[in-house]
Write a structure and sequence with these properties.
The chain contains five helices and four strands, in the order ββααββααα.
């Protein structure tokens, strides 16, 4: 049952993802997801969490990564997401964006060709 358009109870989330509710509980215990709770402590899954669960399912079922590997990958992705604005800001303030670095590298490579 969907409580509103963006929040789903565990039974509906599990059905939408073709997963067992116990799997969702296990992923929560491992810290892979953090569903919000109702006053009665029922789990509520947002669309963002459903997308994260789809990614986890893909990594486990189709790519063959174990849950420890998934935890590591998601942790790295979160760190990259947090530092990306800092990297963009630093590149803008120093004037060294990716395009300028790529241009320098390609010029450097062209000049050092071995005949």
């Amino acid at each position: 049952m969907a409580l509103d358009q963006d929040l789903f109870l565990i039974s509906m989330a599990a059905e939408m993802l073709d997963m067992h509710p116990q799997t969702l509980r296990k992923y929560e215990r491992l810290g892979l997801i953090q569903p919000s709770r109702t006053v009665g402590s029922m789990r509520l899954y947002s669309r963002e969490e459903l997308e994260r669960l789809r990614l986890i399912k893909h990594l486990v079922d189709e790519v063959g990564i174990n849950l420890a590997g998934v935890q590591r990958l998601l942790s790295i992705a979160e760190v990259m997401h947090r530092i990306q604005p800092l990297m963009d800001e630093a590149a803008l303030s120093t004037g060294t964006g990716r395009r300028q670095r790529d241009t320098k590298n390609s010029k450097h490579t062209k000049n050092n060709k071995v005949s």
